[in-house]
Amino acid sequence: MTSSVQIPAQTSTRRVSGAYALIDSIKRHGVKHIFGYPGGAILPIYDELYRAEAEGGISHILVRHEQGASHAADGYARATGQVGVCFATSGPGATNLVTGIATAAMDSIPMVVVTGQVPSAAIGSDAFQETDIFGITLPIVKHSYVVRDPEHMSRIVAEAFYIARTGRPGPVLIDVPKDVGLMEFDYQPVDPGDVKLPGYKPTTKGHFRQITNVVELLQAARKPLLYVGGGAITAGAHEELLALAERFQIPVTTTLMGKGAFDEHHPLSVGMLGMHGTAYANFAVSECDLLMAVGARFDDRVTGKLDEFAARAKVIHIDIDPAEVGKNRIPDVPIVGDVRLVLKDLLRYLAEQAQPISTQQTRPWLDRIQTWRQDHPLTVPTYADVLSPQEVIVELGHQAPQAFYTTDVGQHQMWAAQFLKNGPRRWVSSAGLGTMGYGLPAAMGVQAALPGQTVICISGDASFQMNPQELGTLAQYGLKVKTVIINNGWQGMVRQWQEAFFGERYSSSNMELGMPDFTLLAQAYGVKGMVVKTQAELRAGVAEMLAYDGPVLMDARVRKDENCYPMIAPGKSNAHMLGLSKPGVAP
Asked: Which residues are catalytic?
């Protein structure tokens, strides 16, 4: 990527190190928190960070594993909309970031990742702790740099932040050789507003003719459906979505990434669609005559059998990334642009039209969806002798409806997506990559960014053991994250698939042998530990957990063989779901 930067006129310069230029440039972008772990190659940068912390305005959070740093920066970005920042040293420090970088890339999360590197002269010699992190991460970053000259540092940082947050967001890597961090030069800082990248011009404004085509399709539709993805969260298009849905009385379904873009308490909401989506959302997408995809990418977990997904519908697809429009489904009306700006233009055009829009033409459609909702509701099972996982999720949502929720990956993630009704940016979950071990460090990032908010991590006993060491980070920094382990003694989703599709051959999915006592583990880190096993204990325990002024780990012992339904079997259409309370009504 070529670039040119306008350097502001300066009357004087001063000699500083490359490491100073890096930290100073990061501060100029308003960064308050950096998540990381030091090591030999990145020590010049940490030495400057030490001075910057002493001066105030920026703080470093020492994680216990570099993967925790990348997930924390990711969670920070999802909850705030700002660019998350993480540091790691060369070699294993850098490679430990890879899973977190890939997670952010799949979910379009803005991050700037800084890695130390061996000295320039040693690159390519297989020096101690040398890895080509630039090459390793090429498929999973939006852009990347190796800093060869400290004079380029401030420009590179400014470009990295600009690239990470604009267009379709994503992670950007900056690899800094040790000698470049130590080298002194005459410093001329580049401020955030001074970045010019002629070869990089994301399209933000939708084509006017296509917007008029959208209106024509909306006016003709009798069974429209809004299909909303994470792009709507990124764009902050919540008000525009609400206005459009209410104007035409269009039901709204969201993806896992789109949760919070539309109020799930609203009567037009039909919840999440896809593999573990609501039955009524999946029936609706199977029968709709117009599907308006807003910031979504027609992911396989949403579409099921692709050639039967919304097979009767005209398709409108709005997305800021032209590579996504038409990638999996060819739309009848494609619009490349910022979701919020496109919807604003659409609403403005509607307001200028003299012809009134009927709000009754979708009434039979809404009534049909309501019938599906009544026939196939999400249900919370109760048992006399053991908690159901769903009960735990529902109780959390009842007592902490406004909390920021992070999750790990598996059954508990899907139950949380089904039963929690989150506000914008209050749902933080690894969707595209499905990264176990994400929830706790992501919650650290959210809590660091928003210290006055309630942050709850919903995990599984298997997922939690991927990154339990971050309990030490919570304890060190007093991060008041509340972690709830939905403990069924299994890799729950793996067990469910083995039961349904692999003849009940439970190969390497039972986690009971070797499972730690989670309360003792928490206490060993200086974190409050709790166990709940019954409904009475659950209500009181959640209340106690939320009232406690510090981090808490709750071990919720639940029914071991509970399955997550509805479920679309692999290779099936959205209309064919397992586990419905009544036989499915195929369109």
From this structure: 66, 128-129, 178, 493
